[in-house]
Amino acid sequence: MATLILGGGSQIGLQLAKLLGEAGKPVIFGSRSGTRVPEGTLSVRFDWDDPATFGAAFALGQKIDYVYLLGPSHDHDPLLKVKPFIDLAVRKEVKRFIVLSEGGGHTEKGPDSKKANNLIKNIVEKGPVGFIAVQDIAEIAFKAITDVESLPNKEPILVGPELVSYQEVAAILTEVLGREITYKVISVEEKAKRYEQLGLPKEFVADITQIEESLDDGFDVKLAADPRTIRGKLGIRQWIEQNKAAFV
Q1: Which of 29, 63, 71, 156 might form a disulfide with 43, Cβ 3.0–4.6 angstroms?
Q2: What are the boundaries of each domain within the chain?
Q3: Is 2-101 a domain of CATH 3.40.190.10?
Q4: Nearest Cα to 221, choosing from 102, 103, 139?
Q5: Considering the entire predicted model, what is its pTM?
Q6: Which overall architecture, per CATH, does domain 112-132+158-247 show?
Q7: In the chain, where do the E strands start and end?
Q8: Does 112 score more than 70 pLDDT?
Q9: How many Cα atoms within 13 Å fall on the side-chain side of residue 183?
Q10: Are 29 and 35 contacting, i.e. CB atoms less than 8 angstroms apart?
């Protein structure tokens, strides 16, 4: 009864694989690059842009009951690529899909964006954000696989244990790192241009910036109050302290 982790090379995928491994649950890694595969873990090449790779995990001969699914992150309509795989997995009698969907743009590079110039840029002026740690997301995905009845519902909303502004994040970074980190509000147009320079499609960029703009209207405040919401455990200060070395 293996779990197939798609987007296995992601930080969440790696953390989920660790939790499953510690619990003695078999894991199959599916990733485009084939790098960052935990030692002793079965892995296959999986690429959302190459449907020929969709059946590789099932060809290994292990019964796959669960799929952790991280869809193509830069597609405006990811279902176009995801549905053919889901149809195949259903035919292979997969019991449950654990799907991670994003409420806004993010990067798993973590500290990298703060190392170069000690400056954080975004379009959010004062709106609080429910930053949630990779570990917390992975733990909830783990429960969805091993103890789904412990979750409050089948479509939980995940937010961090606290709501903090970008200005507060900059202040905490300054205190913990011992050097000044500043936050600069930029225009929607400048942020969109930065996303487009990263190669993101214009439709996707429009979605991201719209969600980021909504933070100033209390978007994450409303999410935090939603009865479907699960709050993470790791606060922003604790996360920065744990990852302090990566900011150097």
Answers
A1: 29
A2: 2-101, 112-132+158-247
A3: no
A4: 103
A5: 0.88
A6: Alpha-Beta Complex (3.90)
A7: 2-6, 27-31, 42-45, 64-70, 96-100, 119-122, 157-159, 182-185, 229-231
A8: no
A9: 16
A10: no
